[in-house]
Amino acid sequence: MNSTNKDYQELNQLLKDIKFAMITFITEEGHLHSIPMTTQNSEFNGIVWFLGSKKSELVKNIPYNPQVNLGYSNPSNNDYVSINGIAENVVDPVILDEIWSPTYEAFFEHGKSDPDIQLIRVACNGAQYWKGAGTLTTLYKLAKASVTGDSEELGTTKNITL
């Protein structure tokens, strides 16, 4: 199933208040490893940007194993998004200018010109999301199911090819 404008709008709605992703990547030894990273996009468009360190395990492993998964969660709404894609280490001063914030000076001693800065671009292949019914609704449905023995629909799930 190919994505539609409606799919992008739905993903934007789910991701709008979530700034952090758990990026899962493949290590040199072939193991899966996850680290938290700040998403740099203000809107999801099929490409997700991150700012990392050239010394990091993630950046070092991308050229050898570019497959990644981005995990986002908003437990207060019971919303979860998993996006798979291909990561690439990129040099692009225009993008760096767009996403740079003085906050990053705490991580990069020489500011925007620090030679350790690495832009990471993830071209997304697909996504799956679980949209919860909200905490109170979910609690009600769980309580009802435990009393009646009936199963309850606790939200929606959708797979999207990007």
Give your account of this protein's structure.
- This is General stress protein.
- It comes from Acinetobacter halotolerans.
- InterPro entries: Split_barrel_FMN-bd (IPR012349), Stress-Dev_Protein (IPR052917), YdaG_split_barrel_FMN-bd (IPR038725).
- The protein is 23% helix and 40% strand.
- Strand 4 (67-74) and strand 5 form a beta hairpin.
- Strands 1, 2, 3, 4, 5, 6 and 7 form a seven-stranded antiparallel β-sheet that branches.
- Residues 135-142 have low confidence and may be disordered.
- The chain is globular and about 60 Å long.
- The protein is of the alpha+beta class and 162 residues long.
- It has one domain (5-161): Electron Transport, Fmn-binding Protein, Chain A (Pnp Oxidase, Chain A, Roll), CATH 2.30.110.10.
Question: What is this entry, summarized?
Answer:
Helix content is 23%, strand content 40%. The protein is of the alpha+beta class and 162 residues long. The protein has a single domain, classed as Pnp Oxidase, Chain A.
Relevant terms:
alpha+beta; seven-stranded antiparallel sheet; 162 residues; Pnp Oxidase, Chain A
Radius of gyration, in angstroms, nearest whole number? 18 Å
| Average of pLDDT | 87
* Helical/strand content category: alpha+beta
Shape: globular
InterPro entries: Split_barrel_FMN-bd, Stress-Dev_Protein, YdaG_split_barrel_FMN-bd
Protein name: General stress protein
Organism: Acinetobacter halotolerans
Domain General stress protein FMN-binding split barrel: 8-151
